[in-house]
């Protein structure tokens, strides 16, 4: 960019602790720093064991463990969690786990105003944003509110070692999606661009290493660092077509969150590429390619991730309704959003063939 352009960048008070073992050793100190004495620990069922260890580390300051977080934060789950907070007399929450657990913690913060500490165990990046989401009657609605931004984030690379390789890959590509959309957001800024490029480069380098050796602590730390950067990009900018599509596919059709982001990303980017040349330049540098959508598609395939919406359970009959839903609400996007255009993106993602953004060089166009 040139510095004749206008931009703004807003940051909110937030403390980050990053070190192996921090989930147990740092969380009690973060609670004390915030003056919290009765914390409800929330998690999903898969992360309950780790959440229990955090609860035990909090000792008498733990008001209980609520291990009922689910994907896309159904509104009835939020109701139960808020009731649990009030019944426990909690003055704050600690969310331990992936995007579902942190999303439930945010729903509690939204309803009660209580401070939230996040202890991420995946690469969702939700911990770095003021974005909340709730699903009700098959529709996922999202919003932004400073009250849901975690006051402290405790990054512990050891927590992610047990993350299965398939989820490691899709969670990591989910993080990449945050950086990709931030680069063509209307409120992108120089700092966001720097964070996005570094986040994409770090994640794309870490994931192949983790596919070979899931216990590589350095690569786990590098991926968590990348998720931090990519999540911070999302927190500072406005979401576009990619995230809207994923919210519709997840909230209405129950498709798994990270896997859906992984499948949709190359096709949404290919669709937007003609209207986002600067974003493609930055991403091309980070990935070392002239065809970013194709490179992201190839990365997912090389690491064994799903590459079509059909694999995730969507049917061809769902595409028209999903396109209408995704195109039916106004939101920022570099290219005009039309129902026909969205249907084209969804059809390409449904079939899973290589995306074609028209951005490749002649050398890249040679058959493989």
What are the salient characteristics of this protein?
single chain, 368 residues, alpha/beta, 6-stranded parallel sheet, 12% strand, disordered C terminus
Question: What does the secondary structure layout of this molecule look like, with pairings?
Answer:
Layout: E1 15-18, H1 22-25, H2 27-33, E2 39-44, H3 48-58, E3 62-69, H4 75-88, E4 92-97, H5 99-112, E5 116-120, E6 131-136, E7 139-144, E8 152-155, H6 165-183, H7 190-212, H8 217-236, H9 241-253, H10 257-272, H11 277-287, H12 292-302, H13 319-327, H14 339-351
Parallel strand pairs: 1-8, 2-3, 2-4, 4-5, 5-8
Antiparallel strand pairs: 6-7
Question: Any overview of this molecule?
Answer:
With about 375 residues, this protein is an alpha/beta fold. Helix content is about 50%, strand content about 10%. It is built from 14 helices and eight strands. It has helices at about 20-25, 25-35, 50-60, 75-90, 100-110, 165-185, 190-210, 215-235, 240-255, 255-270, 275-285, 290-300, 320-325, 340-350; strands at about 15-20, 40-45, 60-70, 90-95, 115-120, 130-135, 140-145, 150-155. It has a six-stranded parallel sheet with strand order 1-8-5-4-2-3, sandwiched between helices. The longest helix is centred in the middle third of the chain and has 23 residues, at about 190-210. The chain is globular. The chain starts with 14 loop residues before the first strand and ends in a 17-residue tail after the last helix. About 55% of the residues are buried.
């Amino acid at each position: 960019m040139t510095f004749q352009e206008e931009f703004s960048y807003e940051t909110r008070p937030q403390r980050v602790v990053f070190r192996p073992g921090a989930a147990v050793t740092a969380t009690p100190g973060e609670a004390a720093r915030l003056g919290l004495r009765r914390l409800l620990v929330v998690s999903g069922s898969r992360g309950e064991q780790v959440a229990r260890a955090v609860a035990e580390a909090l000792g008498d300051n733990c008001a209980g463990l609520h291990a009922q977080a689910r994907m896309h934060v159904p509104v009835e789950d939020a109701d139960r969690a808020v009731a649990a907070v009030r019944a426990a007399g909690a003055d704050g929450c600690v969310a331990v786990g992936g995007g579902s657990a942190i999303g439930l913690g945010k729903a509690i913060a939204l309803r009660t105003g209580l401070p939230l500490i996040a202890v991420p165990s995946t690469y969702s990046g939700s911990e770095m944003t003021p974005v909340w989401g709730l699903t009700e009657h098959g529709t996922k609605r999202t919003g932004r509110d400073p009250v849901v931004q975690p006051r402290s984030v405790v990054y512990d690379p050891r927590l992610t070692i047990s993350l299965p390789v398939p989820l490691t890959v899709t969670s990591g590509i989910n993080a990449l999606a945050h950086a990709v959309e931030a680069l063509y957001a209307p409120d992108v800024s120089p700092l966001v661009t720097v964070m996005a490029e570094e986040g994409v480069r770090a994640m794309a380098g870490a994931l192949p290493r983790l596919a070979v050796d899931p216990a590589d602590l350095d690569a786990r730390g590098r991926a968590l660092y990348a998720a931090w950067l990519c999540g911070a990009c999302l927190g500072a900018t406005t979401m576009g077509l990619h995230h809207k599509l994923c919210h519709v596919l997840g909230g209405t059709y129950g498709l798994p969150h990270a896997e859906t982001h992984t499948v949709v990303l190359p096709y949404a980017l290919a669709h937007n590429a003609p209207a986002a040349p600067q974003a493609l330049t930055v991403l091309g540098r980070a990935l070392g390619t002239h065809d970013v959508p194709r490179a992201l598609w190839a990365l997912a395939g090389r690491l064994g991730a799903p590459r079509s919406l059909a694999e995730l359970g969507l049917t061809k009959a769902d595409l028209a309704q999903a396109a209408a839903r995704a195109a039916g609400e106004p939101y920022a996007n570099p290219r005009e959003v039309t129902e026909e255009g969205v249907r084209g993106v969804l059809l390409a993602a449904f079939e899973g063939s290589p995306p074609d953004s028209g951005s490749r060089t002649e050398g890249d166009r040679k058959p493989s």
